[in-house]
Design brief:
The chain has 332 residues and is α+β, with helices and mostly antiparallel strands. Helices cover 39% and strands 25% of the residues.
């Protein structure tokens, strides 16, 4: 058996500039971190134990005799991409629900590639896993996706990403341990109660980007990445400014598409601000998922006022996608 373990991510600034429709021409950048919430994938040989060739278990169980019969698009196309024809039992688990703005679908594709390459007795670089996941999602599955989620899931950590037509550059953010710990403790994650398919929410945004209708907003979002970097790296600047900048990027993000927010989300955000949040933003494509809030100082009163919403405790992750267990020892 092989078990891959791949983190999901929180994107602070730069979302929207990580689409080739934008960064191929103007360049993009993102500031994000992975967290200790994971997508786990187990891969095992079926070896004639079942009548069917493939067993794929997630929110449902698929029993199939050919790759063409597999409904799960990422599993089907990744098996095709790697030309794996042996019978396999693939199980998918995650710490958090899918379709909630934390990049879990890309974490899954990265983790599946990592696990299937391990099954073949192969190891690739983290960037290669990310690039191949981007290819499968964007070129094969034709999804409306950027590139930050795959890069974050593969590499892990708190990073600045510089994106261009010529390639991707990832730089770890250097912070003192106590300052990083303070940042981590002041960021609170709350579930909106809404899950959605990101590719559907992003359709309008991608079209507007292609038609150059949101260039001013994307430029502002791009500039906020460097602003956020400056705040984190300068010990003389209060991290409260980071929270305020999250508010600014949320206001800019809402202008990219009518599908990003709605009355429920706007109301939840206003409650958080009145309860003591300095700022925050909806993570991922929009339309639902998780809000990230920056709350300075004591959190007890904020949590009490936000008690009707579900908080998810988290820590930063530094490892990216890993093989947590491998019993095959390259037998295949």
């Amino acid at each position: 058996m092989i078990i891959s373990k791949t983190p999901v991510r929180i994107s602070f600034f730069g979302g929207g500039t990580d689409y080739p429709e934008y960064f191929d021409e103007f360049g993009g950048c993102v500031l994000s971190t992975t967290i200790d919430k994971y997508v786990y994938i187990t891969i095992n040989k079926i070896g004639g134990l079942l009548d069917e060739k493939y067993r794929i278990a997630y929110k449902k169980v698929e029993l199939c005799n050919s790759i063409d019969e597999i409904d799960h698009p990422s599993v089907r196309e990744t098996l095709r991409y790697l030309n794996i024809n042996e019978g396999l039992d693939i199980n998918i688990f995650s710490d958090l629900p899918a379709r909630t703005g934390l990049g879990s679908s890309s974490s899954f594709t990265v983790g599946l590639l990592n696990g299937l390459y391990a099954y073949q007795g192969k190891v690739k670089s983290q960037i290669e896993y990310a690039k191949e996941a981007i290819f499968i999602e964007k070129n094969v599955l034709q999804e409306n996706v950027g590139v930050q989620d795959q890069l974050a899931a593969a590499v892990g950590g708190l990073n600045y990403m510089k994106l261009s037509r010529s390639g991707y550059e990832i730089q770890p953010v250097v912070m003192k341990n106590d300052r990083k710990a303070l940042l981590e403790s002041n960021l609170l994650l709350y579930y909106t109660g809404i899950s959605r398919f990101a590719t559907e929410v992003l359709k309008e945004q991608v079209e507007k980007t292609k038609e150059k209708k949101v260039m001013v907003e994307l430029k502002d979002i791009y500039n906020m990445v460097q602003e956020g970097m400056n705040i984190l790296s300068d010990d003389s600047v209060s991290l409260i400014e980071f929270g305020k900048l999250l508010n600014s990027t949320w206001l800019a993000k809402k202008k990219l598409s009518s599908a990003i927010s709605n009355n429920h989300l706007d109301e939840m955000y206003e409650i958080a601000l009145k309860s003591g949040a300095v700022g925050g933003k909806l993570l991922g494509a929009g339309g639902g998922g998780f809000f990230l809030f920056y709350v300075d100082g004591e959190k007890q009163d904020f949590r009490k006022k936000m008690s009707k919403f579900v908080e998810i405790a988290f820590r930063f992750d530094n490892n990216g996608s890993i093989i947590a267990y491998n019993s095959f020892k390259h037998e295949v």
